[in-house]
Amino acid sequence: MIDPMVSSYEQMVFDAVTRLENRIGRTRVVVQVGQCSASVGASLLADELKNGLNVGDVDVVKTGCDGACFAAPQVIVNYQSGNVSYFQNVNYTDLTEIRNSLVNNECRKPGVNLERFFSLQHLSLMSGVGDIDPYSLDEYLSYGGYHGLLKALCMTPADVTLEVAQSGLLGRGGAYFPTSRKWETARNTDSPERFLVVNAEEGEPGLFKDRHILEGMPHRLLEGALIAAYASGCSKCYVYVNAEANLSSARLSEAIR
After folding, report:
1. What's the distance, CA 126 to chain centroid?
2. What is the average pLDDT across 158-179?
3. How many CA atoms lie within 13 A of 4 on its CB side?
4. Architecture of domain 4-138
5. Distances from the Cα of 167 to the Cαs of 126, 163, 170, 236, in angstroms?
6. Burial (CB count within 10 angstroms: exposed 0-12, middle 13-18, buried 19+), residue 65
7. What is the DSSP pairing of strand 236-241 with strand 75-78?
8. What's the pTM?
9. Class of domain 146-256 as given by CATH
10. pLDDT at 233
11. Which of 15, 26, 158, 159 is found 20 to 30 A from 75 (Cα to Cα)?
12. pLDDT digits (tens, 9 = 90+) for 188-220
């Protein structure tokens, strides 16, 4: 017998993929807009590019930053033909060239090759950031989103904690305390109510890791928080976001809705 929870998840993914099929054959223009690129005008560039287009079958999508902040603003054009153009450090004078490439459906000579930059990295939490629309639950589901939560809910909280312990996952706050120990301690606490707190304040100088996830893949943070809450027996979750991180707050709030 199929578990109703599994069946519901599979239906959600099927519906998401079905809705996204309407975009097949369309040109996708990705403008990476994060806290870093917004400071050099990426969001305004994206709006200007979209408003100035007189081309059908083109979607302009604002995503998060993929980590190559030195190349911001980045515009990535995925043409109907399957070719891809990369535009880095884009300014207003580049918009005409980008629009012309869309009109002619032509692939511009590639910009800076970031293949080596990313080939030296193993992306886990950041995988998909810079490509997936952070406002789209459908895109996250089609990328395998919330499958980890489904797997966790099909296990006992103790088994989830054990699997995390065996993975060797450590905290990312600097002390590298085993994550499983935190969850187990919370679950074994004699309290009628437990709270999960996600600290995305980035209070230490030079730490700008949290906002890349919040801005580029907010549903991933929510999925992780839900798994942690289930494993540790928490009934409520609070996410603390730096008051100056307006974009992080906006995208996370939209994901929660």
Report:
1. 7
2. 90
3. 0
4. 3-Layer(aba) Sandwich (3.40)
5. 18, 6, 9, 26
6. buried
7. unpaired
8. 0.90
9. alpha beta
10. 95
11. 15
12. 998 889 999 998 876 665 566 778 899 999 999
